[in-house]
Amino acid sequence: MPDYDQEQGTARENLCRFLAACYYQPGPEFAEEKVFDSMLNAATRIHPDLAARARRLGEEFSAEGPESLLVDYTRLFLGPSHIIAKPYGSVWLEGEETLMRDSTMAVLEMYQEGGFEIDEDFRELPDHIAAEMEFLYLLIYRENEARRNDDPEALTAMAGLRKRFLDEHLGSWVSPFTAAVKAGAQSGFYRELAELTDRFVKMEASEDKAA
């Protein structure tokens, strides 16, 4: 596997993991842990367009602050009366008010196949955008690990699962979801997060098609 860029592979892992973190409630720990510096570093190793988006994301967080962003986060993803951008795959794959249906069961089977266990403290549905981005991170990580260990069997299994996950699940609903976020967000932060998420997931899916 001589043509694989291991440094870029690790950067893809990291950017995916940090994107997932941004779909939890915003707090001061984002700045304290220098999440956006780490995102920019990872994005810079992948593609200039992602780097530009990551830079703007960090700037928007600094400009608006976690307290202001929490208001927008609640409006977008929690309600209470009307949720602007429901962060669940089943809503976008099976209908506006549909939760925990066939697509959710299908993604749970993929989680099991990939050895992904949702933390017991996670109080959301299993097809929440944060959970699906964390699963994508795990698949990228395990592909990288298989390459490092020169394990073609594990590589084929993880690459195949990642392709199915993107084709049948996350890659099929991320664009309408992020479009709803961009249309409904009052903050530049969530507009940038949506754009960066959409571009990253599409880049992952196009890499599969090119492989």
Describe the model.
With 211 residues, the chain is mainly alpha-helical. It has one domain (6-210): TorD-like (Orthogonal Bundle). The chain has helices at 6-21, 29-32, 35-44, 48-78, 89-94, 102-114, 129-148, 152-168, 170-184, 188-210. Helix 3 packs across helix 4, helix 8 crosses helix 10 and helix 9 (170-184) runs antiparallel to helix 10. The longest helix has 31 residues, at 48-78. It is globular and about 50 Å long.
The helix count comes to 10
> What Rg is obtained from the alpha carbons, in whole angstroms?
17 Å
Low-confidence stretches: none
CATH homologous group name: TorD-like
Query: What spatial form do the alpha-carbon principal axes imply?
Result: globular
